Amino acid sequence: MSTPERGRTADATSAAAGRPGAHPRHDLEPLLTSPVRLSVVAALAPLDKAEFGFVRDLVEVSDSALSKQVAALEEAGLVSVDKGRVGRRARTWLALTEEGRRVYRRHLDALRAIAGA
Questions:
Q1: Above pLDDT 70, what percent of the chain?
Q2: Is 97 exposed, middle or buried (0-12, 13-18, 19+ CB in 10 A)?
């Protein structure tokens, strides 16, 4: 069992005590608590769009695992999926929606707040 740091105290009158929903965990997006889904969103965040294979290789998952996670993100409106062709080859592009970018930023802000950063 760990002991509190010297010089620091906490009691019931601390910052968020008594205010329902004040803890930053309430701003976490449940979909992004999955490491694969968080990794996919993080990979897409700095990009306009990315090819499915690029994201698959970056996140180090199988096609089927990525497809399943992208489907959940798409259903929630966080990711858009566009299919097309480059020459004769079928391609699938993934992109964060504006809602996806907003949710990702809020999720990261909540993680930072929880960690005290």
A1: 81
A2: middle
